[in-house]
Amino acid sequence: MTAIFLIGLREGLEITLVVSILVAFLVRTDRTALLKYVWAGVAVAAAIAIGFAALLQVGVARLTFTQQELFEAIASFVAVAFVTWMIFWMRRMARRLGAELRGRMEEAIALGPVAVASVAFLAVIREGLETSILFYAAAQGAADSVRPLLGVSLGLATAVALGWLLYISAVRINLSRFFAWTGALLVLVAAGITKYGVHDLQEAGILPGLNNLAFDISGSLPPETWYAELLRGMVNFTPAPTVLETVAWLAYGIPVLVLFLWPARTPAVTPTPQNAS
């Protein structure tokens, strides 16, 4: 639930920021008549994302055990790809996201209402589909279906509240720092999803070593305890992982976390030569 809350918060805040930037731009430029087209684009994108999430659940339930394990493995790896791309993209774009969106909106206004709705739709649909896939991948193996749904709902609700407070300037947070912290945590979440994908491939019989454990600390860390559940939810840590699962977690988590935390290189400024007098 904790990991899924973090996914809902991160993805939800991105969606909220995008929508609030578009709405604020129209309000401040006295174009409030176009707001209905923005909300229409947001509504259609949200409906498609929710429908896609429901389709995932219904479609997978009809597969055989081996097909389910294979599908869940593919969904896990797709989710990891999305997370990896998202955190590096947001680290690069956090400071200039508003200017880019405002520029797109100006171009859309010149084209007409459908273009305005399309800007909002395209800005939200990507995050919505990502959230659906990430939710499905992170929720695999949960004891029930209520806690994952509650986690993502709380995350999205918190994101909407933060976005509203930011919009009315009631709070101000350093977005670059926020995305840096949540990005680092999401790298660990993605490492756990990678590990889960490898486990699914082993369950499906595609990868060997299902019974070849790297270690077994079930006696010291009983799976039914709250702290074991917290570790499993956050980084998919299990007391008795296989060797391949452990290698997959480390092979993804360590290099990606190092690359993400590595200071961004600033372009060198070439001095302008002085003309001789």
UniProtKB/TrEMBL annotation:
It is found in: Membrane. It comes from the Bacteria. One of its GO terms (cellular component) is high-affinity iron permease complex. The chain crosses the membrane at residues 6-27, 34-58, 70-88, 108-125, 145-166, 178-198, 246-264. It is a multi-pass membrane protein. Belongs to the oxidase-dependent Fe transporter (OFeT) (TC 9.A.10.1) family. GO terms for molecular function: ferrous iron transmembrane transporter activity. The keyword Ribonucleoprotein does not apply. Coiled coil: none annotated. NCBIfam families: EfeU. Keywords: Membrane, Transmembrane, Transmembrane helix. The lineage of its organism: Bacteria, Bacillati, Actinomycetota, Actinomycetes, Micromonosporales. This is High-affinity iron transporter. The keyword Disulfide bond does not apply.
